[in-house]
Please model this.
Amino acid sequence: MRRASIILAAVLVSACDARPAPVTLRAGPPLRLEPGPGVRINARLKPALELEGGIVVRFDSPHLTPDSAYFTAPPTAEAPPAVHAGTLRVSVCPAGERICRSLTIAAAW
Amino acid sequence: MEALVVAGCVAVGAAAIRPRPAVSDGVPAPELGNTSWLNTDRALRLSELRGRVVLLNFWVFTCVNCTRTVPSLVDLDLRYRDAGLTVIGIHTPEFPPYAGEHDRGNLMRALARRGITYPNAQDNDRRTWNAYGIRYWPSFVLIDKQGRIRHTGYGEFHLNDRYYQEWDRRIRALLAE
Model:
């Protein structure tokens, strides 16, 4: 079975900015959130996928940096099988920038 | 089945990769309209702080870059409070309330855990964040004794690193005016 993939990344980049995508959401199951080059995903504010009906699914992974600040492996989440669209929220802290930024992205898979 | 796509891009802090400056230096600082405060017995207003230098720190306790900067802010508060500096935390959540950042109790515990005794406003509706055009966590706005914005910036810093020294120099210069 071919694995469905790709969400935001490419399209988001072309739509919003000419630089590499901060994150890529890969369809699963489970859904998998991969950071772009140099991007760290904030583990203290777990990424969220907001679905219809007010359902919120949070991404998580047991693999963290020693200070529990960032994920060291792509966090995953289980969305209900019948759901294929939602709003992704993710806090990313690009290496070398000394800041965190919050992204809110409409996604479908 | 190959999956789809993206339907757009809305950035709540920023979608662009490269940081941009916030409000302009030299303009009157927008008034603080927040109603929920901690570490103070009343809501603070900049109009009541004329004659003092004010350092606003836009932060949230889930932001690692923010919490790593707290020791420096605590230090600046300790060193310069009596000399005329007021440090104010503007606690601005990244996510909707389900993430717990809007909760007053959670913020109270975060302040206690990190030894923060300077006033903090809950900016849950982002009114102050938006008024200052902030885009990143953490961000800083330094306001002079006349209530004008004199310096803005963003990014984690640590005790005695070059960014700390720069903020320290700016604060001392404004206190001396």
Observations:
- Chain B touches chain A through 40 residues (CB under 8 Å).
- The helical segments of chain B are 64-80, 104-113, 127-131, 162-176.
- The mean pLDDT of chain B is 88.
